[in-house]
Amino acid sequence: EAGVVQSPRYKIIEKKQPVAFWCNPISGHNTLYWYLQNLGQGPELLIRYENEEAVDDSQLPKDRFSAERLKGVDSTLKIQPAELGDSAVYLCASSSYSSNEQFFGPGTRLTVL
Amino acid sequence: QQQVKQSPQSLIVQKGGISIINCAYENTAFDYFPWYQQFPGKGPALLIAIRPDVSEKKEGRFTISFNKSAKQFSLHIMDSQPGDSATYFCAAGGLSGSARQLTFGSGTQLTVLP
Question: Is residue A25 predicted with pLDDT exceeding 70?
Answer without folding.
Answer: yes
